[in-house]
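Work package 3, deliverable 3.1, input record:
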Amino acid sequence: MELVCPAGNLPSLKAAVDNGADAVYIGLRDDTNARHFPGLNFNEKRATDGIVYARRKGVRVFLAINTYPRPDGWERWQAAVDTAASLGVDALICADIGVLDYASNRWPDLNLHLSVQASSTNYEALRFYQENFGIKRAVLPRVLSLSQVKNVVENSPVGIEIFGFGSLCVMVEGRCILSSYVTGESPNTCGACSPAKFVTYKETPQGMESRLGDVLTDRYGKNEQAGYPTICKGRFEVGENTFYAIEEPTSLNTLELLPELQAAGIEAIKIEGRQRSPAYVAQVTRVWRQAIDACKQNPDRLSARAEWNRELGKVSEGATTTLGPYYRPWQ
Amino acid sequence: MSSNPRLSLGPNLFYWSRDDIFDFYAEVAEMPVDIVYLGETVCSKRRSLRTEDWFDLADRLSSAGKEVVLSTLSLLEAESEMLTLRRLCENGRFLVEANDMGAVQLLIKQDVPFVTGPTVNIYNPATLQVLANKGLKRWVMPIELSKETLAEMQAKRPEGVETEIFAFGRMPLTLSARCFTARSHNLPKDDCQYKCLDYPDGRLLSTQEKKPFLALNGIQTVSSLTCNLLPETAEMKRLDVDVLRISPQSQHTGRIVEAFHQALQDEPPPPLDRYVPLGTCDGYWHGGAGMERLKVKG
């Protein structure tokens, strides 16, 4: 099982490489990837430095071009594919059919992975991308239970990568437009969910209020820490109740499923968090490296060690973790 | 300039009782819509109609002169759902609207023309061309795209491919593994007690300021505001749109269809605001946030 770690900048890339990542995924500094945040990501020079650094230690580098170009931006996505090819990345992670078509025709030797943003949850969808663009791997959206993941793996024409840890998208990636419903910008079109420029916090007599655009996403009591106003993690009223109607602020953590994931033939585990700090990347990578190695040696006797979960808990959103959709009752 | 756009009735996104569904489609047979999309697109646990029943309904509406299209589930998770998907894609008679890429793949393998629904991500002409080469006959533009994007897509659209626009209805915004309607009743999805039946237009979710925001529809979340592009019919004609989609709601769908029909005959249509649950919006069409009301007049 390959450990695939996030890097939003060169220090994070080095942290991932130094702490045991098998592969690191990065993006360019524009809206061609789904973490288009101010100050984040790589220009060509930095990407080259990162690839050199990773290669020296035998670590692969993937580059995400996983948003959906609209007609007026098409040349920018083409240029991003060309840049990735000339950088010599080990794989390109794409979602859009047009982009995959361009990449597979223009750069037939380039490895293509299907991004989680392609929103493909079943093996027939994966066959489409394999037959038409020769994808080598697919990242599954976080909507399947563990037994459903196993069924996809058994029938998939390509290797499967799943999310193991990090912020939890509750909605099916690539087909959620809650963000653009409120702000006009979505992960698909602009490479960011709930972009920071639409976020405001205000102290009021009712408590600290967080807003995305004009929409009040939550109010926090005196002893509560204000969270980021992602719509799906807000508190809303439904019927008589005010609660986290969609999901609590929490992180996905599948550490305890590792033996099952390994037995299921999962090819790679992805860690979420290109927007997080180098310290986060180092810590999470270190723990997952140890866990995967321990699992490889003796899957029957692996138990999620308390100190691992403690370390991961420290860097989790809301300082809590969940098995998410892999665990059926969560659904 | 193509001929006048046709009207379609999209698949019903909500969960109604068997009787309500049959009553509704008996009325639809008399409505001035050209195309009717049938089937369950949200949740495979909704079984007030079985696949056979949908086929029967398709026959009936087809006999009534409607072009019938069978719509597939949007989020496929279980193998049992794949079996139903195969039955729809291999029906051999009716056109199918694919709502995910798995359905697209099965239809390509059948070598039949197909339609893509709004949850198949076609954001640029390159994608449209790839799918046109595989048998795409008509695409529904993704909900979040604007008329500017539409104009560019139309300029480069492949020969023979028709364009359909989601013109009216609560907008499907997202899907999840989790059932939010069940969650709002403190029930797990596996024991949802079919609570969706109590909310024939979705269950309202409001902000803590009591502002209506979204509507929970099982594993799907829709807008609380209703997209209304009735004032844009002339613009859509100018942009050579082939089909305008009206998404069913539990009340007044007939009046809404009638209003669009009038607008396409260049007669002044009645205002629709009083026929929607909670107000209208048109932000996506005009390039803004989806929930904005930028140009809607009545």
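Chain B touches chain A through 72 residues (CB under 8 Å).
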